[in-house]
Specification:
The complex is a heterodimer of chains A (113) and B (439). Chain A is an alpha+beta fold. Chain A is 51% helix and 12% strand. A three-stranded antiparallel sheet of chain A has the order 1-3-2. The chains are: A alpha+beta (113), B alpha+beta (439).
């Protein structure tokens, strides 16, 4: 039986989705790459069970915020499914980023006081 | 050292265990599986590149990926609402996952199906004949019992052996219930019929090899009770509690319904019965003929007093009326014989329409008649039945009648009885039983 692998801050599904949109806002990525990039960007502060990225990607794709397509990598390796932001996804990312900054400013004003 | 294919099989099995525990669009399975496997494979390759051996690298990849039950729940949530994901979304994969069937499955399948069918039919028949409130209480129980049986059936045919223990428990409860009902109410034949299936189920399931293991923890109970022992995936506690409640309420609700006073049904206070006895005498002052008139009025009527059965089949129990006349003669005078001069007649005195009266024999010394139209009696209408008797024995010396007793039996639920002598009127009172011994 595998053990649950999780460390760092606990993210809500909405926050996790926003981080994924943020990463995909930089460039197309596939699931494994998103997890690795998230870990690298946050210096391992956000280190979720890796498999949780795929349900989040499915949800974003279902909501029309990202689109996925398969890419052949090598004959000996499985294909990769790359994701990129849709127009709605770009708008959601902009809105989410603005909301987050407002929240961060408000939270800082309390915590720094 | 394992061959690479064997390790890759482990990765594939991990993907399967995640997706088997999730609820999603079936056409997405291939894509989901390929994507999840691709991740595990790449993680495995990276771990090997960092110096781990293949087995350890596979362990690392699987551990990093996350627990199947959590990931399965997350996948379900990506496709469904939170409520669905925490209830049906867990239940459906639980009963549909492994497809290989256990040895002898077809016997259990047949018996479970027969049992469910018989139980469903029996409960359906019972509900058909129940009053609205009772049926309203009993119906959810019937549905729950049927759903529980369906889950057991589905799970067992997929080699989820918890179903066997579940079926044994269900059969035991069914038998207890049936036994209780048979002891307390011999009229409930449909339940008895349904229980026959349960008995067969009990016999067959008891003959299967026991697979019980000692419980070691709460998690073990969750595994044991509702999940497959093959994929070792526990079921959320809320669902466990829900199914336990379903198992208990299934038989308990119909049982409880039997004891509920249904406000849609009338009681003795809603029926008013009166009796009028008129005696004609001859020149000697002896009783020569007797006219008896019984009237009854309902303040309100029952709503589906016998369920839907009478409406659908045109049959069903009816109200009954009874009449007993007791004579009183001086000592030494031969017994006078009262002869009915014509069959009793009845009518709706409110609108004048005739009332059908069927002779039902003479049990307990009193004459008895059925009222086949009683199911359509209307509130506020006054219904009348009259009897005419002549004293057959000439110069009988019948000086008086000691008692004329009229009884009204409403669907064997309550009885009203009025007693009067010659030239008297009387109002009906509730009595424990309708038929009194005749002279």
């Amino acid at each position: 039986m595998s053990e649950e692998h999780e460390s760092g801050p606990q993210l809500s599904r909405g926050e996790f989705a926003l981080l994924i949109l943020g990463l995909l806002g930089r460039r197309e990525m596939y699931g494994y790459e998103i997890v690795a990039e998230l870990r690298r960007t946050t210096d391992g502060a956000i280190d979720l069970p890796e498999g949780t990225v795929y349900p989040a990607l499915r949800r974003l794709e279902r909501d029309g915020l990202i689109g996925g397509h398969w890419v052949e990598v090598a004959s000996t390796a499985p294909r990769r499914r790359y994701y990129r932001l849709t127009t709605d996804g770009e708008r959601a990312l902009a809105d989410g980023r603005a909301d987050w900054l407002r929240f961060k400013t408000a939270a800082d004003s309390v915590l720094d006081a | 050292m394992n061959e690479p294919e064997a390790v890759e099989d482990r990765l594939l099995a991990h993907v399967d265990s995640i997706l088997d525990g999730a609820s999603y669009r079936k056409r997405d399975r291939e894509d989901l599986a390929e994507e999840l496997y691709g991740h595990l494979w790449e993680r495995w390759q990276d771990a090997i590149s960092s110096g781990l051996d293949e087995e350890t690298a596979a362990d690392d990849a699987i551990r990093s990926f996350g627990a199947p039950d959590r990931l399965g729940r997350e996948v379900t949530l990506a496709y469904h609402s939170r409520l669905y994901a925490s209830t049906i979304g867990v239940l459906v994969p639980t009963v549909t996952a492994p497809k290989d069937k256990p040895r002898g499955y077809w016997i259990i399948y047949l018996v479970l199906f027969t049992s469910m069918y018989a139980t469903g039919m029996a409960q359906g028949l019972v509900l058909m004949t129940w009053t609205p409130v009772r049926a309203g209480i009993g119906l959810p129980g019937a549905v729950m019992a049927w759903v529980a049986s369906s889950l057991v059936l589905s799970a067992y045919t997929r080699r989820q052996h918890w179903a066997l223990d579940f079926a044994r428990l269900e059969a035991a409860l069914l038998l207890l219930w049936a036994g209780f009902l048979l002891l307390t109410d011999a009229q409930i034949r449909p339940v008895f019929v349904g229980s026959a299936g349960g008995m067969g189920l009990a016999v067959i399931t008891m003959s299967q090899p026991l697979r019980l293991r000692p419980l070691s923890s709460w998690r073990d109970l969750r595994l044991r009770a509702l999940s497959s022992w093959m994929n070792e995936r526990p079921v959320p506690r809320r669902l466990l509690v829900g199914l336990a409640a379903m198992l208990i309420l299934g038989p308990a609700l119909p049982l409880a319904a039997l004891g509920v006073a249904d406000p849609t049904q009338i009681g003795p206070a809603d029926l008013h019965v009166s009796l009028l006895v008129a005696c004609a005498r001859n020149d000697s002052g002896d009783v020569a003929s007797v006219d008896v008139t019984a009237s009854f009025v309902f303040d309100r009527t029952d709503m589906w007093p016998n369920g839907l059965e009478p409406d659908l089949t045109g049959r069903g129990p009816t109200d009954e009326i009874a009449l007993t006349i007791e004579g009183a003669q001086p000592a030494g005078v031969p017994m006078a014989a009262l002869r009915m001069t014509r069959v009793p007649s009845g009518r709706d005195a409110t609108n004048g329409s005739p009332l059908t009266i069927d002779d039902a024999g003479e049990p307990d010394g009193g004459a008895l008649w059925d009222l086949p139209g009683s199911m359509r009696f209307q509130a506020g209408h006054s219904y009348e039945v009259t009897w005419n008797y002549a004293v057959d024995t000439p110069a009988s010396g019948l000086r008086d009648l000691s008692r004329v007793i009229f009884g009204y039996d409403h669907l064997e639920r309550f009885y009203l009885q009025a007693t009067a002598g010659c030239g008297q009127a009387a109002i009906g009172q509730t009595v424990p039983r309708l038929y009194v011994a005749g002279p």
